[in-house]
Write a structure and sequence with these properties.
The chain is 30% helix and 36% strand. The protein is of the alpha+beta class. One of its GO terms (molecular function) is ligase activity.
Length: 165
Amino acid sequence: MIISLPPALAKQLSDSRAEYAGPSSAVVPPHITLVSGRATDDWADAAAHVRKVAAAAEPFRISLRGTGTFEPVSPVVFLNVDGGAQDCARLHGELLQGPLEHLLEFDFHPHLTIAHDLDEAAMARAKAGMADFVADFEVTSIGLYDYLGGGWALREELALGGSGR
């Protein structure tokens, strides 16, 4: 489950990511992960749970402000989710109250990855180059993805309760 970005912001960040990581960065579009994992049992049950959580949630605002890093634990430079982090954490927790499993070895920390597993110079350029980045957008839906045919594919874009999207 992810939060997708408005198209213009997604394009801007895709271009920035390509500047640091090259064209291979386009394989995964910019997003904020809510749960990186899998259904613990039946896909239909997991999808129904995600739909229920989305329907009960209210739209909220995300504010991206500057960069952070998970180094030295993990070679990642990211944009900070300054505003909306608590909303993301709440959604993350509610999503995990059903038949979903979060498969990352680290605690959940809302962020938007800019650079990952690059050489030190590229990581430093990404961190410095995006340090003053600022963007705000409204989250009105979450994306339910499935791993199909060797890649992630959007199965459903689910409107947050009352957002009409």
